[in-house]
Amino acid sequence: MTGASDSKPRTRIQQKNSETILEAALDVFSTYGFRGATLDQIAEVAGLSKPNLLYYFPSKEAMHQALLTRLLATWLDPLRDLDPKGDPLDEILGYVKRKVELSRDFPRESRLFANEILQGAPRMRDAIEGELKTLVDEKAKVLQGWMDQGRIARLPPVHLVFSIWALTQHYADFDAQTRAVLGAGHDPFAEAGDYLDTLFRKLLAP
């Protein structure tokens, strides 16, 4: 059967259906994880038949991989934007702010990534050990340079990046807990932004 995976350009309807399937897959994977998700669940959420799903994506693995590939690019863009020529504090706090915004705007993607990592990153190991590690190593050198110049406090640069990831993505991955503890009338992401800005300003003061 000739499917949408062929090299010829997709029609507008094919592109729309492909996006609908990935949106449904994102809902299901972020809720149940890769192992708990089924093609039947994805088809139901997408409002399409299972054969229709398999026309666009040959397997559950293919859908998951497509989502992870897209996610990694989105997740790494703010770190790529860290400018070695900029003001160190402004650059780092800007990165923290963008990571909070990503957690607010893309909570399903954050949980998808967390689920993959908790399973040992079987479908992302090459990307993590390759593209992600290379980028972190590159930016760690930038951070180390600023520390050596006395422009920010001396800290282990890679662990500083880990801390930013943990403190920002928490608000997406543990959204239900955060909202339950804060109670009604609180905006977790607005409060997180203010708190993390203060925290990292004090942490990074030379």
UniProtKB/TrEMBL annotation:
Q: Which UniProt keywords apply?
A: DNA-binding
Q: Does the keyword Plastid apply?
A: no
Q: Name one Pfam family in it.
A: TetR_C_3
Residues annotated as coiled-coil are none
Q: Which residues form the HTH tetR-type domain?
A: 15-75
Which terms does the record give in the GO molecular function aspect? DNA-binding transcription factor activity; transcription cis-regulatory region binding
| Spans through the membrane | none
Q: Which GO terms describe its biological process?
A: negative regulation of DNA-templated transcription
Which regions of the protein are recorded as binding DNA?
38-57
Q: Which InterPro entries match?
A: Homeodomain-like_sf, HTH-type_TetR-like_transc_reg, HTH_TetR, Tet_transcr_reg_TetR-rel_C_sf, Tscrpt_reg_YcdC_C
> Does this entry carry the keyword Oxidoreductase?
no
Q: Which SUPFAM superfamilies match?
A: Homeodomain-like (SSF46689), Tetracyclin repressor-like, C-terminal domain (SSF48498)
PANTHER family (UniProt xref): HTH-TYPE TRANSCRIPTIONAL REGULATOR RUTR (PTHR30055)
Protein name, as recorded: TetR family transcriptional regulator C-terminal domain-containing protein
